[in-house]
Amino acid sequence: MPDISVPGVKSRFDTEKIVENLMRVERLPRQRIEQTNETLVAQKTNWQNLGRRITQLREYSRLLYSYQNPFSDKSAVSSNEGALAASVSREADAQQHEFIVKQTAAADRFLSKPLDAAFQVPAGDYSFSTGGKSVSFKFSGGGLQDFVDTVNRRGQGSIKAGLVAVQKGNKSLVLESLVTGAENRLTFSDDALRLALQTGIVGQAAGEPKTTNIKAVAARGASAVNESVAGDGMQAPPMSDISISLGTVVPTRTLILRFETSITAADLVLSAASPAPGGGSGPPSNDAPDQAAVFPPQPLIPTATAGENDTVVDGKYVIQRQRAGGAAAPDQPDAAAPDEQAAPPALTAGAPARPPADARVNNLSVLSLEFSDGTSVALPPVNDMSGFTQNQYQLYPLAEGRTITGININNDNTHRSVSIRNIQLFDPAPAGGEVRPLNPVSTARDAIVLMDGIEVRRPTNMIDDLVPGLTLNARAASETPVTLEVETDTEAVKDAVITLVGNYNRLMAELNVLTRNDESVIRELTYLSEDEQKELRDRLGMFSGDSDLLRFRSRLQQIMSSPYTDAAGQEHLLSSFGIMSDARRSGGYDPSKMRGYLEINEAALDEALKTNTDTLRQLFGRDSDGDLIIDTGLAYTLNQTLQPYVELGGIIAAKTAGLDSRIAANDRRIETLDRQLSIKEQTLKAQYGELEGAYTRMERMTDSLEQFSRQSGNNR
Question: Which pTM was predicted?
Answer without folding.
Answer: 0.59
